[in-house]
Amino acid sequence: MRLQRIVLACLYAALAFCNVKKGPAELRDKYDFIIAGGGTSGLTVADRLSEALPGKTILVVEYGEVEYAAGIYDPPRVFWNESGGLASRITHSGLPSPALNNQTATVLVGQVVGGSSAVNGMFFDRPSRFDFDAWTRAQESPEFDNSPEKWDWNGIYPFFKKSVRFTAPSAVVAAQFGYTWNASHFDNTSRIHASLPPFLWGDINVSQTSWKEMGVRPGQDPASGDKDGIFWVPISQHPITGRRSHSGLGHYLDVAASRPNYDLLVRHQVNRVIYPGGNPASDNVPVVEVLSRDTGRVFNITATAEVIISAGAIYTPGILQRSGIGPANFLTSRKIPVVIDLPGVGSNFQDHSGPRPAVNWRYTKPTDFSPMPDDMGNPAFLADAIAGFNETPARGPYTLAMSNLALFLSLPNMTANYSPILDKVRSLISSGKTISDLYLPPVYGQDGSLIKGYIAQLEALLEFYSNPRAPSLESAFATGFNFPAVLLHPLSRGTVRISSDPLTPILDYRSASNPIDIDLHIVHVKYLRRALQTPTLQNLGAVEVLPGENVQTDEELEAYVRGNTTQSYMHPCCTASMLPKEKGGVVGPELKVHGAKGLRVVDISVLPLLPSAHTSALAYAIGEKVCSPCEKR
């Protein structure tokens, strides 16, 4: 292991002789394309642009450094749920959420070349095809309807295929665990890898069998856009080495040395963009103002073709707001000259949330699921696990990440009594004319476009919730004694605003501010509770610990949810939404900022609605899709 780390350290140090830049003196006089953010989408765009346009120069500005990014479960950690990882990250806390007993959200953001793909949980699933139907329903307008760029399932599916190289497990491993997949959903031309591990803990079948006993159907492959059922989900991991695969490797390290037109400026942050002529609708391309994290020095860099903001849902709205692009009232209150009044910048903030643990139990009968995480406390078992991780191909516990098995279920497939929830959504649509009616942030009351856009989202979600194939719940299982309940499509909306520190935005999650989210959480918890009555868990003597036998009524479950909810599953999104301007949108179908020439946003902030998935696979696909017409630029 020590030798491996020395080799990796040398490999990363060698980047200093490639295209890594440390300050303005090392940069070119100007660049054709400047990309703000060297994360999942940003490095995908940089790779594809520099490949397709060898005569054009590309600069990526990244506030992190080039570092080795460990997997979510690599040595020297002993237990799979220990915190750790060598790549840098920033931890942000949200404002207290009154609807959840003033609890605060915690969200981690990658501060490293590779961004959050270098620090995330490595769960690599695609959204439901019905997510994109909901997007297109919310986007309905001449601008989107007449655009050749389509964001329905057929419009983005080719870029999911292009964005990852999937390696199937061996026949022996597939038979051992019952893995299923469909290789036709992958082009296998990317340098981003996904695979199914050659090791699982011994109790993996407990959840799978109990869910089947509840009548849930096994699905073959969530990569198809089918997300209702039980699925094996790949992880973003190299199939031979067992190491994390992320954009810093596949879209930078693997290509940087051979691309003389591709530069990376580290430990710097894009502070804002400036239109020198003062007219973003007619000026060609904005100048990029950059801040050094080491010296505090501020300087400008010139782009001649386009500036692409790819700083993620937490930081992208800050760059726009500091540029004078955002809600006019807010910008004026901060003494920032208004360049473009776009109320949607920093609004529509969403994240997956849910009671955790939703359902927790203990066994009252002897069990032997070996191997289990407790076995890592055995020195011989641990030594073999470390040795296996360093073999070629890698084997053993350290080839795992957080989870490979997941349940995705729709509202109609969890309860026959879902109509009252739909009726509440209809009531919001028909009678919701004010922010108090709709449980929205105060900023929504300052511009009618935000309310109009939110109503369009409700109409799309009403159709989504009614669909028996469109998932409302995710429960991803690794090992242990609980089923988490993740709400995939909340109705509550929050905001992201700048503060005096560019790396410390103000996050107002406002989780569960819309009470329908509580109704959905209660349905999810009630459903997962039923698993404890299945033959599998009954034969093991499973006894509920949480919510507990004293929590039975809806009122008691509501109190449980309000006191035990994780507000962020690290999937912040939607703060620069791809919607028409008249619906509070920030970017159009080509991801160009409304009213601004030479400026795009390419990251998870452009989502109109949360997807039925973890977000890294979608972030790669967005980067691939926006670069598909690169030869035209």
Automatic annotation (TrEMBL):
<feature type="binding site">
    <location>
        <position position="270"/>
    </location>
    <ligand>
        <name>FAD</name>
    </ligand>
</feature>
<dbReference type="InterPro" id="IPR036188">
    <property type="entry name" value="FAD/NAD-bd_sf"/>
</dbReference>
<feature type="binding site">
    <location>
        <position position="112"/>
    </location>
    <ligand>
        <name>FAD</name>
    </ligand>
</feature>
<feature type="active site" description="Proton acceptor">
    <location>
        <position position="614"/>
    </location>
</feature>
<feature type="domain" description="Glucose-methanol-choline oxidoreductase N-terminal">
    <location>
        <begin position="312"/>
        <end position="326"/>
    </location>
</feature>
<keyword id="KW-0274">FAD</keyword>
<feature type="active site" description="Proton donor">
    <location>
        <position position="571"/>
    </location>
</feature>
<dbReference type="Pfam" id="PF05199">
    <property type="entry name" value="GMC_oxred_C"/>
</dbReference>
<feature type="binding site">
    <location>
        <begin position="40"/>
        <end position="41"/>
    </location>
    <ligand>
        <name>FAD</name>
    </ligand>
</feature>
<protein>
    <submittedName>
        <fullName>GMC oxidoreductase</fullName>
    </submittedName>
</protein>
<dbReference type="InterPro" id="IPR007867">
    <property type="entry name" value="GMC_OxRtase_C"/>
</dbReference>
<dbReference type="GO" id="GO:0050660">
    <property type="term" value="F:flavin adenine dinucleotide binding"/>
</dbReference>
<dbReference type="GO" id="GO:0016614">
    <property type="term" value="F:oxidoreductase activity, acting on CH-OH group of donors"/>
</dbReference>
<keyword id="KW-0732">Signal</keyword>
<dbReference type="GO" id="GO:0044550">
    <property type="term" value="P:secondary metabolite biosynthetic process"/>
</dbReference>
<dbReference type="Pfam" id="PF00732">
    <property type="entry name" value="GMC_oxred_N"/>
</dbReference>
<comment type="similarity">
    <text>Belongs to the GMC oxidoreductase family.</text>
</comment>
<feature type="binding site">
    <location>
        <position position="569"/>
    </location>
    <ligand>
        <name>substrate</name>
    </ligand>
</feature>
<dbReference type="InterPro" id="IPR012132">
    <property type="entry name" value="GMC_OxRdtase"/>
</dbReference>
<dbReference type="InterPro" id="IPR000172">
    <property type="entry name" value="GMC_OxRdtase_N"/>
</dbReference>
<keyword id="KW-0285">Flavoprotein</keyword>
<feature type="signal peptide">
    <location>
        <begin position="1"/>
        <end position="16"/>
    </location>
</feature>
